[in-house]
Write a structure and sequence with these properties.
Shape of chain A: elongated
Strand content of chain B: under 5%
CATH class of the largest domain in chain A: Mainly Beta
CATH topology of chain B: Arp2/3 complex 21 kDa subunit ARPC3
Structural class of chain A: alpha+beta
Largest interface: A-B, 50 and 58 residues
Strand content of chain A: 15-25%
Number of domains of chain A: 2
Order of helices and strands of chain A: HEEEEEEEEHH
Number of helices of chain B: 8
Number of strands of chain A: 8
Number of strands of chain B: 2
Number of domains of chain B: 1
CATH class of chain B: Mainly Alpha
CATH topology of the largest domain in chain A: Immunoglobulin-like
Shape of chain B: globular
Radius of gyration of chain B: 17 Å
CATH architecture of the largest domain in chain A: Sandwich
Oligomer: heterodimer
Chain lengths: 190, 208
């Protein structure tokens, strides 16, 4: 392998890393939160700036049966309104989004998410908190953008991660080459 | 292109893992110590290209460079892509670990087919046409991978044409961009060092 080839390939890798406007991600992510109503709300996205638009999002019960479906909007946001279903507990339920091109993501609801979410408060007409239940809802709604931001930052792939991966690949192949060269020289001595 | 766990049927997962293991073994058998740096660099190029998201339509697609990898590495494309793919799965969760074999075949096999089909042409054609054949090989690898992903989903109970239409349409712009990148890179490298590009082994009849 010529040094020129190595330099040009490294140049190609460097060029790809500075690809304009495109973030570093290709995995579907989902943010899910329970809002008063009750409403299972959230967002499906590839990266903070690339939502998955018009995606079908399903709410599955504990047996895996779809009980409610919704479509994400242009920002990837979805709302599954559960008021008519009379559910008391979402523990063990799953929110799933599968694309037709083989990508998918699911989020399992673990806690008793509906407790304290049964009263009439909604996002649009909000009243001052009067009980522990409504205080929790207020906090939940106020903290939602922050949670969403933290979720997006946690799932983002940073440049340092990609560079770390490139370094790992070089290390693994370097070890392989060392092993091949060593066995080659041992074979020569014999 | 990276299928996730639980989407494809078990027989397909098992059979593809066996075929992929065989393909990787064949690729490893062909590796000469001098080839290792070349494999490492191209594996890194694949790793980086695959994490770059290109927003298209309702979703996103990504470059792969498998046409370039296939034409330079031949059967060694399988271990090269496996290394990149394994790291992507473990580090970023791209695709599932149980479908690693299937993802490897879907991504690397069209690159290897591009090598079998276009490598003899590249060595015979005038140097001015290398960029064209390189671009076709790059685009072919992307469309081939799209069709293989659609086929994998169809084998697992989803409609082939629906999936194929969606995936191929989503990847058409990627095929064009990748064709351009591979075409330019190939014409440049071909002038620099034609010996870098292996040729498929000729049969006795062809050699005669």
């Amino acid at each position: 392998m010529s040094a020129r080839f190595a330099i040009y390939t490294l140049g190609l890798i460097g060029g790809l890393l500075t690809f304009p406007t495109c973030g570093l991600a290709h995995k579907l992510h989902m943010f899910v939160t329970i809002e008063p109503g009750p409403v299972v709300a959230g967002r499906v996205y590839y990266s903070r700036t690339t939502p998955y638009r018009r995606a079908r999002v399903d709410l599955l019960d504990r047996s895996g049966k779809t009980i409610k479906s919704a479509r994400s909007d242009e920002e990837g946001r979805f709302h599954l309104k559960l008021k008519d279903l009379g559910l008391q507990d979402l523990d063990g339920f799953t929110v799933r989004c599968e694309t037709k091109d083989g990508h998918g993501v699911e989020h399992k609801i673990l806690a008793n998410a509906l407790t304290g979410s049964q009263d009439k408060h909604t996002h649009d007409h909000f009243e001052a908190p009067q009980s522990h239940g409504s205080l929790r809802e207020t906090l939940a709604l106020e903290l939602r953008p922050l949670k969403e931001q933290i979720n997006a930052l946690e799932t983002k792939i940073w440049l340092r991660d990609v560079l770390g991966g490139v370094g790992m690949l070089m290390g693994v192949f370097g070890l392989w080459m060392f092993w091949l060269a060593r066995s080659h020289s041992v074979g020569k001595k014999e | 292109m990276h299928l996730v766990d639980g989407i494809v049927s078990t027989p397909l997962v098992v059979s593809s893992a066996i075929i992929a293991a065989g393909a990787v073994a064949i690729g490893l058998k062909r590796v000469d110590p001098d080839d290792v740096p070349k494999i490492a660099l191209l594996s890194a190029a694949f790793f980086v290209a695959s994490v770059i998201r290109v927003p298209i339509g309702p979703g996103a697609a990504h470059l792969m460079l498998t046409g370039l990898l296939g034409l330079i590495l031949g059967p060694m494309i399988f271990p090269a892509v496996l290394a990149g793919l394994l790291l992507q799965t473990l580090m970023f969760g791209f695709g599932g670990i149980s479908v690693l074999g299937l993802n490897l075949l879907n991504i690397a096999l069209p690159g290897f087919l591009a090598f079998l089909m276009f490598s003899p042409l590249l060595h015979r054609c005038p140097s001015s046409q290398v960029i064209i054949w390189g671009a076709i090989a790059g685009g072919f690898a992307v469309i081939g991978s799209s069709l293989m992903v659609a086929g994998s989903l169809a084998f697992s109970g989803q409609g082939f044409w629906t999936a194929a239409k969606l995936i191929v349409l989503a990847n058409l712009p990627v095929a064009v961009v990748e064709g351009l990148v591979v075409g330019v890179a190939l014409s440049f490298l071909f002038k620099l060092k034609p010996g870098l590009f292996p040729q498929p082994k000729l049969t006795a009849k062809q050699a005669a």
